[in-house]
Amino acid sequence: MTAPLASQISTLLLTNKSLVPHPIWLATFLSSQRPATPPTALYQTALFRLLASDISTSLSPFAPHTFPADVHNMDLPARQLPGPIAVQVLDVEDMSQSRWEQIEAIEALERGEGTKGREIVRVVASVEGGEEAVVAAKAGGPHKVLLQDARGVRVYGVELRDVEGVGLAMSMGCKMVLKGVSVARGVVLLEPRTVTLLGGKIEALHKGWREGRKASLKRRLRRGSGREDEVQH
Q1: CA dist 118 → 104, 133, 219 (Å)
Q2: DSSP notation for 65-124
C-alpha cells in the first residue's frame, strides 16, 4: 500500500467523521488489505475497525484532537474547545435515578421483571435491544458519561440537553466527536449541537461494564459522596 493511499484514507476519515487515525494503526490496517481494494471500500472498513477499537491506540493523540492538559482544572470557568475531539464512552449513569434505584432496576431485570406503573411484569429481553434497552426505556436522564480521548485522558461529561443516543442503552466504547464543546470546572457539557454520535462498541469493555455495573453502583453507594466521582488522569 502506498503513502498516497494512506493519506487519502486518512483525509476521508477526517473529512467525513472527524477521526484522525494514528499513522502506525493505519499502516498496519492497510498492510492487511488486498492491494486491489478500492479506496471507498478501504475507508468503510477502516471506519468500522476504528469504531470497534480502543482509540488510545488507533487515533492520533495530538492537539487539537484531544483534551487540553488542564481540562481537569476546577478553577477555570467555562471555556470552549474547538476540536474536533474524538472520545469513547467508558461509563454512563442516569442522574434522574438514585444509585439505589438503579441497583433495584438491575435486580428486577435479573429476576426477569420490569415495571408497568406500579405493576410488576415479566420482561423478555429482545435480541436487538437486550436488557439495556429495557432499563433505558425507564430512564429519563440527564446522563453523566465518562469520556476518554486518544491520549487516554478521562473526563466526565453531563448532558445540558438530551443528546440522541446517549443513555443506558448505549454500548461502552461508543465513539463521539465533540466540536465547540464547553468545559466548566473540569466537566464537559454535552448538547446536541456540539456532540456527534458515531456509534461503535468495544466488546470486552461493554461485557465487563454490563456484568460489573451493579457491583460498581454498590461501591459508589458505600463510598458516599467523597471520592466517588474522581477521574483517573
Answers
A1: 14, 20, 28
A2: SS--TTTT-TTS--EEE-S-EEEEEEEEEETTS-HHHHHHHHHHHHTTEEEETTEEEE--
Q: Chunk the chain into consecutive blocks of 10 residues (it has 233) and report each block's average pLDDT, rounded to whole numbers.
A: 85 96 95 90 96 96 93 89 96 85 75 50 46 50 94 96 90 96 95 96 91 82 57 49
Q: What distance separates the 2 farthest-apart alpha carbons in the chain?
A: 63
What cell was used for 114? Answer: 420490569
pLDDT at 123: 44
Contacts (Cβ under 8 Å, ≥6 apart) of 108: 114, 115, 120, 123
Return the pLDDT at 114.
52
Q: Which residue has the cell 493519506?
A: 7
Name every residue whose Cβ is closer than 8 Å to that of residue 208 and which is 6 or more positions away in sequence. Answer: 172
The answer to whether 20 and 65 have CB atoms below 8 angstroms apart is yes
Beta pairing, strands 175-178 & 119-122: unpaired
Yes or no: say if 133 and 165 are a contact pair by the CB < 8 Å rule.
Answer: no
Asked if residue 179 lies in contact with residue 152, where contact means CB atoms within 8 angstroms, the answer is no
User: Coil, strand or helix: which one is 127?
Assistant: coil
Cell of 203: 466488546
**DSSP line for 165-185:** T-STTSPTT-EEEESSEEEET
pLDDT at 231: 53
Global pTM reads: 0.80
